[in-house]
Amino acid sequence: MDTSIEKQLKLIETAIDRGEYKRASLYLNKIASANLGKKEVHAELALLYGKIADSQSEYSAAIEFYKHALQDAIAVNYHNGHGKSLRRIGAIHSKKGKYTDAIKCFEEALSIFKKSGDKTEEGGVYNNIGTIKAIQGRAEDANAYFKKALQIHKALGKTLEIGHDYSSFGILYKFQGNYKKAMSYYEKALEIYRKEVYRLGEGNIYANIGNVLSKGGDYTSALEHHKRALVIHRRLQNSIWEGNDYTNIGNIYNIQGDHKSAVSYYEKALRIHARLGHKLGEANDHANLGTIYADMGRYDKALSFYKKALGIHKLLSNRLGEGSDYSNIANIYSHKGMYSRALEYYNKALRIHEELKNLPGVGGVYTNIGNTYCHQGDYEKALEFHHKARRIHQNMGNKLGVGNVYANIWNIYSSKGDFDSALKHQEMALDIFKEIGNKSGEQGALANIQVSLGNIYSSQGEYDKALEFLFKSMNIYKRMDNKLGIGNAYAQIGSVYNSQGDYKRGLQFLTNALNIHMKLGNRISMELDYLGIGNIYIKCGEYNKALQFNKKALRLHKPKK
């Protein structure tokens, strides 16, 4: 291929990475017109057209372009084009959750690159396969493939590819909940991207670092990094990633319990993804909005968003997305007390994750089934499924997953009134969170320990001791800036004052809780607050006021559509 054409194609690829799709398409059309009949050139052009469609989640169109590239490459024995076409087709299969088909394409591409001696692409394929193994929870296999990729790219001195490999290691360790190691690799990748002036990669790494910081509970720094990512992606006019940045910011507000702010950012993301026709982004936005409305107790609205997400994932043949949607829909049915329906949908999700050999997904479904049995009061069944989830996470080497299981078991024992066992499991969770440097989990566990101790003393009638620990939990939530946690702590403290007969302070704290829950739009907590306040007014003999608050609780009990 002519050297000047190769340079032009490289510049066009850079434009695509920046999200400059119209400009890239214009230049591609010009090169295509000037090189009619040159199948080798047209194979490369088709790959770039496919990349544009791929970037916008137009997977059907992308596949067609990649197939055209494949045909042209085979026709003139253009081995490099043949291998790259297969690699790109494999990447589409991977995005759709068709991992068996993806691996088949990657292995065929790998064989071609080994024969042609294209070591750079060979390393890239190892990275692709490693990514699938990471998604499936096969950490050891993923690690081995990423090491192969890194070794090749280091030997070739391919700095940018080395950055991609470091980024992949970061993603792997993030999946495992090992945030210290994830940060180490992200920082290595960031250093390379800055040196190579690869602005898109720099922006994406800021976003990844923000996600790790958020998981670790450092929400201020997380927001800083997401805003840096947003500035870069806006400058590059990469709207897709701009939408993703809004999603990430929304996620932080969601974690903090600030549902209204989260909704605002998710809606911004949705508007961008819808405008661009970025279907996968749209599906994820619908799912995120569904989760927010579920947390707010608006189950019918949540169900509507989840079904929209499911429809898009089915359209894209994205099996991984479908599995997640079935789990989310099942969660709604569980919240509504429709447990048989919930278990039906969890089993649909389970079959997909088993089909994909997606171990994190299987573990997640087991956790959800366990939570459903807990809601039903079948604590033995709940424990059985949580321990199934624990074994999967242990086999994957996912310490974060194990810690989260112990935290869920804490909830089971708390529901049973077995506060000693609850305390024991939360302490086990705490030890794990400390070990892996998960500050969010660590602080959450500490808060839950204080709650457990508060509940123990409250059940024993030692209300002063109970208040001491509940105030400690409230202070932890304040340090975390977890608004939902603060509101719930106020409510618990108010309940203890009520039990003490200190109705004035009970009313004060429950009102504070209600104000927070109203600001967050959390209908479930608001309902409980209204009932708690109503109960105090009954004890005070103010029956008209009690009736008013109980009526408010009743209205909230009927979910909004």
Q: What are the SSEs and their pairings?
A:
Elements: H1 3-17, H2 21-34, H3 39-55, H4 59-75, H5 79-95, H6 99-116, H7 119-135, H8 139-156, H9 159-175, H10 179-195, H11 199-215, H12 219-235, H13 239-255, H14 259-276, H15 279-295, H16 299-315, H17 319-335, H18 339-355, H19 359-376, H20 379-396, H21 399-416, H22 419-436, H23 439-459, H24 463-480, H25 483-500, H26 503-520, H27 523-539, H28 543-557
Helix pairs in contact: 1-2, 1-3, 2-3, 3-4, 3-5, 4-5, 5-6, 5-7, 6-7, 7-8, 7-9, 8-9, 9-10, 9-11, 10-11, 11-12, 11-13, 12-13, 13-14, 13-15, 14-15, 15-16, 15-17, 16-17, 17-18, 17-19, 18-19, 19-20, 20-21, 21-22, 22-23, 23-24, 24-25, 25-26, 25-27, 26-27, 27-28
Radius of gyration: 26 Å
Q: Mind telling me the CATH class of one domain?
A: Mainly Alpha
Looking at this structure, what is the CATH superfamily of one domain? Tetratricopeptide repeat domain
For the record, give the distance between the C-alpha atoms at the N and C termini, rounded to a whole number.
60 Å
Number of helical segments with 4 or more residues: 28
Helix content: over 70%
Order of helices and strands: HHHHHHHHHHHHHHHHHHHHHHHHHHHH
Mean pLDDT: 89
What is CATH's topology name of one domain? Answer: Serine Threonine Protein Phosphatase 5, Tetratricopeptide repeat
- Biggest sheet features: none
